[in-house]
Specification:
Length: 190
Amino acid sequence: MDLTALYRQCGIDRLPLKPALLARGMGCGLLTYEQFCRGTGADLLTLLRCHNPDAFTYALSDGPVVVYNRQSSPGRRRWNIVHELSHILLGDLSGKKDAHDGAADRLAADLLAPLPVVSLCGVRTAREMQWLCGLSHEAAGLRWEELCAFRRGEKGVWNENDWTIVRHFQPFISAVLDRLSPQTTTVPVY
């Protein structure tokens, strides 16, 4: 999948990725559990028993919609929505748990925290990964491990797709690096 083309199509050129931009660019709707229940007449407790309590994808007559739990933490909510959108991008609307979850997790991680971008932004810790990409603590820790492997070359050498993503995010990367430069860093005096 050409992630740069998807980022362009959705107007995404900075992190943290805004799931609403991704959904809109894909022609998908986003609804909270409460909005879905009001619109469909579904009972919330039944809905939660029948579907994932974090998020799920539902096919409506005018296209797919991701239904999500707004009570989740912002990082977890971002991951859940992008995970469901990844199922749609992969053509998986079956709703079968675990059928394609690994592939959707991989795509969600690549969309939310593109390794070439976070590497060039100088991310040094899982906490920085969490802050830069808007991830949950758990997701940031896992992606940090992948970034370390990426930097050690365990995922192979950088390819043209990596450089294309970097070029697309270049203004964002420059802005992050400018904020981290010694000239703009305020050192507290005690």
